[in-house]
Amino acid sequence: MRARRSVADKYCAGPFAAVTAARPAPRAATYEAPPNIALVKYWGMRDRARAVPYNSSLSVTLGRFRSRTRVAFDPTRDEDEVEINGARATGGPREGVVRFLDRVRERAGTADAAVVMSDNNFPTASGLASSASGFAALAGAASLAAGLRLSDRDLSRLARFGSGSASRSVYGGFVEWQAGHRADGSDCYARPVYPADHWPELVDVVVFVEGAPVKEVRSAEAMQASVATSPLYARRLAGVPGRLRAIRGAIGRRDTARLFPLVMEECDNFREVCETTRPSLDYLTTTSRALLGEVRALNREAGRPVAAYTHDAGAHVHVFTLARHVRRVRTRLAHLPGVRSTLIVRPGPGGHVVGPVVRGSSRGRRRSRPV
Questions:
Q1: What are phi and psi of 289, to 5 degrees?
Q2: Average pLDDT of each block of 10 consecutive residues along the chain (371 residues)?
Q3: Radius of gyration of the chain (CA)
Q4: Which residues face 175 on adjacent strands?
Q5: What domains, with CATH codes, occur in the chain?
Q6: DSSP label of 318
Q7: Is the Cβ–Cβ distance between 141 and 73 less than 8 Å?
Q8: CB within 8 A of 221, min separation 6: which ones?
């Protein structure tokens, strides 16, 4: 696969490449990143300090959805300001962004505070991977605004410190996040496996559930509870590598007969681990469970796999099928009580810069250290 130029190489030139002013000027960049839905989940960090998971994972980058984030490092400000979906962020959401900015500042050798403005065009904290798209967008915008020139691989390495799944949202299409084996985590990054147009017939029917609760416990904490308390966790870890290889191969062959049962098996296994965690992690509503049952019924009636469900840590459900089955599948799911709406999504592109990168000035630099 031909190597891509880094984001900074493509966008750091032009009339905005240098900005001079009587007073120190902000340095700013805007970056968009998509969410992804994992077909093979990661659930648990073996090294939280280095953001290294226990197992590798594989996802589909979702078209139509995006997080857009603007970061401006401003030498005249005393503290970071964070706005998410038009509201001032406080508490945990703000602290997560500030910790991530600190990592970027340390690497770039700057002490400047930042203004961060981020918004999603889809529901937040409901199992649609808003943290993945959000932190991938933050990684892209903050690194560019800070003057870092990162390859996509290095951007993936950086993004995982905000949210593990964010490492996959740097790329489009079908993406594998490699857990790696090195103690320092240097071989832990995502890589593209197949491009977004690899399987044009594959469709994701995203089913939005009425009354989907906002997660009370962040996934980063919930997964570690599963590691510590679920009696099924060790067995899951033993089975994931083989399932990932099988799913990756089925995608490569465009083989729904093999892929769809494996995707549901993986989802069921993930859910069993969550539900046997103490305290139990139950992300689904009655409607969510009815959707899973309806997909099983569709497959029984067809006498072959025509659809596959999966979900992350939330109530909304993704149902994969082929374009020729979409009308039948969507109609059956949309009529279930408690379904708010459905949306057709296909594999989409990865993250990208929006507009020019503005180069201003910094109030001071300190010695940088690698992430």
A1: -65, -35
A2: 43 38 73 97 97 98 95 96 96 95 97 97 68 96 97 98 97 98 96 98 96 84 97 98 98 98 98 97 96 98 98 94 98 97 96 92 51 48
A3: 21
A4: 59, 192
A5: 7-196 (3.30.230.10), 202-345 (3.30.70.890)
A6: E
A7: no
A8: none
User: Which H/E stretch holds residue 29?
Assistant: strand 27-33
Q: Is the pTM of this model over 0.85?
A: yes
Peptide bond into 279 cis (omega under 30): yes
Q: Which of the 8 DSSP states describes residue 304? A: S
On whether the CB atoms of residues 35 and 130 are closer than 8 A, the answer is yes
Angle at 51 between CA 101 and CA 69, to 5 degrees: 35
- The residues facing 40 across adjacent strands are 58
Q: What is the pLDDT of residue 192?
A: 98
- Per-residue pLDDT at 363: 61
Q: What is the pLDDT of residue 25?
A: 66
CA distances from 188 to 79, 135, 140, 240, 242 (A): 32, 17, 18, 17, 19
Structure token digits, residue 101: 């900015």
| Residue 203: predicted pLDDT | 98
Tokens of 256: 């729904």
State whether the Cα torsion 310-312-318-322 is positive or negative. negative
- Determine the pLDDT at residue 84: 95
Instruction: Identify residue 136 by its one-letter amino acid code.
Output: A
Residue with tokens 């001032």: 88
Residue 242's CB is within 10 A of a number of other CB atoms, namely: 9
What is residue 98's three-state secondary structure?
helix
Q: Is-contact 164 42, C-beta < 8 A? A: yes
As a whole number of angstroms, the distance between CA 100 and CA 89 comes to 14
How many CB atoms are closer than 10 A to CB 53? 24
Residue type, 235: R
Token pair of 127 as six digits: 């199992």
Token reading at 154:
């290095």
